[in-house]
Design brief:
- Belongs to the pirin family.
- Its cofactor is Fe cation.
- It is a single chain.
- The protein has a single domain, classed as Jelly Rolls (Sandwich), CATH 2.60.120.10.
- The chain has 1 helix and 26 strands.
- It has one helix spanning about 275-290, and strands at about 10-15, 25-30, 30-35, 40-45, 55-65, 75-80, 85-90, 95-100, 105, 110-115, 120-125, 135-140, 155, 160-165, 170-175, 180, 190-195, 200-205, 210-220, 225, 225-230, 235-240, 245, 250-260, 265-270, 270-275.
- Strands 2, 14, 15, 16, 17, 19, 22 and 24 form an 8-stranded antiparallel beta sheet that branches. The chain has a 7-stranded antiparallel beta sheet with strand order 3-4-5-12-7-10-13, with no helix packed on it.
- A hairpin with a 3-residue loop joins strand 3 (about 30-35) and strand 4.
- The longest helix has 13 residues, at about 275-290.
- The model has no long low-confidence stretch (mean pLDDT about 90).
Length: about 325
């Protein structure tokens, strides 16, 4: 669950000033990023125009990729602070290892949730042998101030709550939707849910008026609140909504993300979420010196070195640009 850019730029996020007080329809562009040795992802958040949706601060969508004759995902050990990672698969498998001793294979429909807190390191790879297809989403949640130095841990939840309506099946990854609550630990009010929409179906989901929302199209070409979306598109919806209407002419899969606007201003650089540039610099120094993050055992390869820090000071600012 990683930002593997070799020249990452600081991303300055948070605060409520750029959160619209009314519903909007902003289709946000993604950009192609190489993740590890062989997996290309579409980075939807942060992106030009929007850095966060609630506490969600990072969204990658990858696949579907044919990897039968390829190594698949191969992400060496790397560090995190101040965030949670959320792994969600549609096809394939990911083997997770971390520095608190977790070893877990995550499969489609299962939640892999890692709380970095004060510091953790982990690796991710397609197991050998592995399924022929790889398709999923990788997401980060920024931890609020009272919890951002919590003890690191990993959760795996194979059974998740489901909300159903005619032609619609919604699996709740994080937070709560229509009275169904995920078992995953959340530290701020939010929601993450996969929506499966049958061909020809139309449905409405209840929303929280105080939340801001976005929808990522994983497959198909659904219509979300009247806006037709292509696969891989992220539609930012703003706040002040009571419901979300979706329909599909064909089978569609979507990811609904939302939460209370994140009030704090944060600095995000490489795989770190902090509040000041000095914290980022200290985390980088700790990782490069082999201290503070622990060791990931069982991965056949060297840890990732941290990129060089940018030549300008890292300062927290708002959530949009």
């Amino acid at each position: 669950m990683s930002n593997l850019d070799v020249r990452p730029v600081p991303t300055l996020c948070g605060g409520r000033r750029a959160v619209p007080g009314s519903p909007v329809h902003d289709v946000l562009p993604g950009r192609a990023v190489l993740l590890g040795e062989s997996t290309e992802v579409r980075r939807l958040l942060p992106t030009l125009g929007r850095r966060m949706v609630g506490a969600w601060c990072f969204v990658d969508h990858y696949g579907p990729d044919e990897i039968a004759a390829e190594p698949g995902m191969q992400v060496p050990p790397h560090p995190h602070i101040g965030l949670q990672t959320v792994s969600w698969l549609l096809d394939g498998e990911i083997l997770h290892r971390d520095s608190v001793g977790s070893v877990q294979t995550v499969r489609p429909g299962e939640l892999g949730l890692m709380t970095a807190g004060r510091a953790i390191a982990h690796s991710e790879q397609s197991p050998d042998p592995h399924p022929a297809l790889l398709h999923g989403a990788q997401l980060w949640v920024a931890l609020p101030e009272p919890h951002r130095r919590t003890e690191p841990r990993f959760e795996h939840h194979a059974a998740l709550p489901v909300v159903t309506a005619p032609g619609l099946r919604a699996t709740v990854l994080m937070g709560e939707l229509d009275g169904a609550a995920s078992p995953g630990t959340a530290f701020s009010p939010l929601v993450g849910a996969e929506l499966l929409l049958a061909a020809g179906a139309a449905a409405a989901l209840p929303l929280e008026r105080d939340f801001e929302y976005a929808v990522l199209t994983l497959s198909g070409t659904p219509e979300v609140d009247g806006v037709r979306l292509d696969p891989g598109a992220l539609l930012y919806l703003g706040c002040n909504r009571d419901e979300l209407r979706v329909r599909g002419d064909s089978d569609c899969r979507l990811l609904l993300l939302g939460g209370e606007p994140f009030e704090e201003e944060i600095v995000m650089w490489w795989n770190f979420v902090a509040r000041t540039g000095d914290e980022i610099a200290q985390a980088r120094e700790d990782w490069m010196s082999g201290s503070h993050f622990g060791e990931v055992t069982g991965y056949d390869g060297a840890p990732l070195p941290a990129p060089a820090l940018p030549p300008v000071p890292l300062k927290p600012r708002g959530r949009a640009r």
